[in-house]
Amino acid sequence: MSKIFTPTNQIRLTNVAIVRLKKGGKRYEIACYRNKVLSWRNKLEKDIDEVLQTHTVFTNVSKGQVAKKEDLVKIFGTDNQTEICKEILEKGELQVSDKERHSQIDSLFKDIATTVADKCVNPETKRPYPVSIIEKAMKDTHFSVNVNRSAKQQALDVIQMIKKEIPLERAQMRVRITLGGKDAKKVIEKAVKLATSVEEENWESGTANIICLIDPGSFRNLDDMIRSDTKGHGQFELLNLKEMVEGEQTL
């Protein structure tokens, strides 16, 4: 019975996502696991082994053709396969079929709309819009999905765009600040200046308990300020993201 030999410069891989980069007049490809490329680019996945099927640079993944070492050194300035893979992963183009691309775009479109609905409200009613209304506004403004950016990143762009179509504002964050000690009053005064409104303010045995609304953009500044001014002893807690109408319960 005859044997079939695979050339030593060929590697066979199946069910892969290919990322391709053209550089120095040549084409280079890497084989990745599906759904991991965007996670890596969005810094959600930090383990390169979870992204790459193999730490190998190809000239053609489908045919299993491996790039020559001398070409890699000439084009990339190194023969370190992992480092070259990272460059291709960062700068290359993810190859997908038309069917996959349409499915990916549709899914990302819905994710973006859902993110906007979660983070924004109608300023007149202080209630969130249904996702279907956000999707319609996105279509009316001819928003184009970028498959190389996360839903969260694109949601910020969408918010600015669809304000032309529907009344929209960021839902404020309801937060609780608990502080004690001799500097509590001073820190609370600084914190209140970053809030849009204070709902509750209670002092008991020298400890302040404040519930207030803040703009999402102030969250990090307020968190950093409380951490530094109290040397980590103050408590800063997010209660919910949406403004709630009177009588409505937080989920």
Q: What low-confidence regions span 5 or more consecutive residues with pLDDT below 50?
A: 1-8, 243-251
Q: Main sheet, how many strands, which sense, barrel?
A: 4 strands, antiparallel
Number of strands: 11
Number of helices: 8
Shape type: elongated
Helix content: 25-40%
Average pLDDT, to the nearest integer?
84
Roughly how many Å is the radius of gyration?
A: 26 Å
Give the CA-CA distance, first to last residue. Answer: 68 Å
Query: Biggest sheet: strands side by side, in what order?
Result: 9-10-8-11
What are its keywords?
251 residues, alpha+beta, four-stranded antiparallel sheet, three-stranded antiparallel sheet, 8 helices, 11 strands, 36% helix, 22% strand, elongated, disordered N terminus, disordered C terminus, ribosome biogenesis, SDO1/SBDS_C, nucleus
